[in-house]
Design a protein that fits this description.
Blueprint (H helix, E strand, L loop, with lengths): L2 H9 L8 H11 L5 E4 L5 E5 L2 E10 L4 E7 L5 E6 L10 E6 L3 E8 L9 H5 L7 E4 L4 H7 L5 E4 L4 E2 L3 E4 L2 H16 L5 E8 L7 H10 L3 E9 L19 E6 L7 H13 L4 E5 L6 H6 L7 E8 L7 E4 H17 L8
Parallel strand pairs: 3-12, 3-13, 13-16, 14-15
Antiparallel strand pairs: 1-2, 2-12, 4-5, 4-9, 5-8, 6-7, 6-9, 7-8, 10-11, 11-17, 14-16
């Protein structure tokens, strides 16, 4: 595991629509892995490795969920509008990073009385996003001079890694970007044409993948994303989607796409033949860039390679190194032999 690269990816801000900082990091990381690098009008980054057909589009999104500042009150407290999906219960007393004229670490919390003076009914009230505000810990005059309505806000927490596991905000989907980069490095001799797309605005509607695939016209699309590991206390085993420690997840279906069964079978056979631990995945709600690619132009056969992850869309997203290694290994082997795939038959 290249921990330094993964840490750069998960600690660089880049909410949907404001991906400029993470785009610069991704562009630098792609150098030496591809023949050309392009950036389109929407902000997608394409690492192009020239070769023969089929043309394979890999897609991992660089954008993350976050907020935009929507109001600054007279005391310098910020009100926010969400960009992407959140569970408000996980946001109370978290740190955020406000990207104004300069960066400010802020404290995120609900607008209510301190717990010491709440009555019983008030204590039972669940927090809502509309109640949330940010305190950036500086005088109101400084806030108003350096922060404006529309400035982006990211979740902010230091990643933690052990030999077995790691936790951080924004494994969704910087972990997919990491797998893409590592698989390209490992599959250094490929014959197919590869468009490694690191896309924008996935969290708000798979927009980057849709426009990117329209321009690329791929023969095959492979999305790289995290998926829910529901192997937790109190969870129904029949609804856990995936499980940590069982290897890479090969997606059969989610609410945005149905994977091409020929590609699912190809990945399963590769995994079986090479002893790569794997599991099949059906995600009842939520989607990946595969949904954007699948509907481009006259249609694209797609599949998603997923990394099982606990606590998705919180500051404590967590995955296992072994599952990530299995994902890299499977994708690299797929790319090495993709020139032999012909889905026209």
């Amino acid at each position: 595991m290249n921990w330094d690269q993964l840490e750069r990816l998960v600690t660089t801000p880049g909410i949907s629509g404001r991906e400029e900082r993470i785009r610069a990091v991704v562009t630098e990381e792609l150098k030496g892995l591809v023949d050309e690098i392009e950036v389109d009008a929407l902000g997608n980054v394409f690492g192009i490795r020239r070769g023969e057909r089929p043309r394979v589009m890999l897609s991992a999104h660089m954008d993350s969920i976050g907020f935009l500042v929507k109001h600054i009150d007279d005391n310098g407290f910020l009100r926010i509008s969400p960009v992407g999906g959140f569970d408000p219960r996980t946001l109370v007393s978290q740190h955020v990073l406000v990207l104004g004229k300069k960066d400010y670490v802020g404290l995120l919390g609900p607008s209510s009385k301190p717990i010491h003076i709440l009555d019983e009914q008030e204590r039972k009230k669940a927090p809502s996003l509309e109640d949330m505000f940010i305190d950036v810990m500086v005088p109101a005059e400084e806030v108003k001079a350096n922060i404006s309505v529309g400035d982006p806000v990211s979740l902010h927490q230091e990643p933690i890694a052990t030999e077995r596991a790691f936790t951080s905000p924004y494994l969704d989907d910087r972990l997919g970007v990491f797998v893409l980069l590592q698989a390209l490095a490992r599959a250094d001799e490929t014959a197919c044409e590869i468009y490694a797309a690191v896309t924008v605005q996935e969290e708000v509607g798979l927009r980057g993948a849709a426009t990117g695939a329209f321009g690329i016209e791929p023969d095959i699309g492979v999305a790289l994303d995290i998926t829910i590991a529901g192997d937790l206390p109190g969870a129904d085993q029949s609804q856990q989607v995936s499980e940590l420690g069982k290897g890479v997840a090969i997606k059969v279906m989610d609410s945005s796409s149905i994977s091409d069964p020929r590609l699912v079978d190809k990945l399963r056979k590769l995994a079986d033949d090479n002893g790569i631990p794997h599991q099949l995945e059906i995600l009842p709600r939520g989607g990946t860039d595969a949904g954007g690619m699948q509907q481009a132009r006259s249609g694209v056969p797609v599949v998603t390679v997923s990394m099982p992850t606990r606590y998705v869309h919180t500051v404590n997203e967590m995955a296992l190194a072994a599952d990530v290694e299995a994902s890299i290994d499977l994708l690299a082997r797929f790319l090495a032999g993709a020139h032999e795939i012909d889905l026209r038959r």
